[in-house]
Structure formats: structure tokens, C-alpha cells
Amino acid sequence: GTQQRLEVNMLLLGAHNVGKTALTVRFLTRRFIGEYGAIESVYSRVDRINGQEICFNIWDSQHTQKCPSVSDKQLQWADGMILVYDICHRGSFDVVQQQLRHIRRGRKPSSLPIVIVANKRDLRRHRSVSGEEGRLLALSERCGFFEVSAAETYHGALLVFHRLVDLVRETRALR
Ligand code: GDP
After folding, report:
1. CA dihedral sign of residues 64, 69, 72, 76
2. Residue 72, exposed/middle/buried by CB under 10 A (0-12, 13-18, 19+)?
3. What is the 19 CA–ligand 1 centroid distance (Å)?
4. Ligand 1 centre and the CA of 86: distance in Å?
5. What SS3 class is residue 46?
6. DSSP 31-44
7. What value does the CA radius of gyration of the chain take, rounded to a whole number of Å?
8. Would the ipTM clear 0.90, i.e. be above it?
9. What are 151-166's pLDDT values in tens digits?
10. Of 99, 95, 120, which Cα lies nearest the Cα of 11?
């Protein structure tokens, strides 16, 4: 069959240093490099999933300012969001919650699929946010949830981006 190509705009949010770029680069190249410049840009990758062409447009946002606000431009652009925190930094979990509130105020709750990502699982000896807390937040906000290590595996990043595509597809089917 000739299914239509699906374009999905995905915005990565979260505090500085949580691994947004690492996750993006993992997904795009399968690699983990270690250090990334502070370049804010939109990357694209086309994949075929179950016979359908999916175009991932990924906006890796950089929040250099203290205020973790989400701009109107970002809210309007995104079909779905990936909110990342570092399991070793409770402050980054707080930022995710602030950004969720911000997003929910800006858009109707059901209209924006979100996946929450607890990153740096490889550093779990230094964990300060439990998996349970992350899962509960995701459950109460109706978001997807994955605990991953961008440093250790490609699989986690793949799951995250593919889950968001599924959520976006479900949302569009409901319209
Ligand atoms: P961003 O500011 O959110 O885009 O964060 P980066 O992707 O630039 O990553 C910040 C730092 O955390 C870098 O030094 C990365 O190498 C490191 N990092 C990212 N993901 C992981 C991970 O899963 N495990 C570990 N140990 N380090 C990570």
C-alpha cells in the first residue's frame, strides 16, 4: 500500500546537561560522542516504520537562561515533546515538572503527546530521583516514560522516538 509520509516535529526539552543532545545524536547516528557543542538546531531523519515513511524533525533546544520556559514558537511548532531529566539531578526533575505545567497552560491537555525520559541510567549509583517517581509523574500527566542511558545504548533512544511517533499518530487519528 502507499501510505502517506508522516512528518513529526519533536521538541526536546529539559534542563541543561541532562543529555538532550546525546539522545538526539544517538537516535540520528547510533553513536555517543561524549561532548557536544551548544548548537541549537533542527535535525531531520527519514525512517521506514511498518512500511510507512516517517520524517522525524528534531529540535534540540538549548536553555542557556535560568528560566526553563517554553516559547510560543516552540509550542506551536511541536507535534510532540520529549522532556528529559538526569536521574542524578533532582533539580532537572523539577524543571521537567515546571515545563509540563507551562506546556499544559499553553495547549489543550490532550492535544500534545509527551514522552518523559529519565536519562543517565548508567549512573544509577548516584541516583537522586527514583524510577517510581518518574513513572508516577508520567502516569499522572498521561505521558510516556522511559529510563535510559544515552551513553550506553542506542535501543533506549530508539524506543523514545518511536513511542512519540506512535503517540502523535494516535492523537491525529482522534481528530
Ligand atoms: P544537553 O545540555 O541536555 O543537550 O546535554 P548533553 O547531551 O550535552 O550532555 C551533557 C553531558 O552529559 C555530556 O558530558 C554528556 O556526555 C553526558 N551524558 C549524556 N547522556 C549521558 C548518559 O546517558 N550517561 C552519562 N554517564 N553521561 C551522559
Report:
1. positive
2. exposed
3. 4
4. 9
5. strand
6. ---S------EEEE
7. 15
8. yes
9. 999 999 999 999 999 9
10. 99
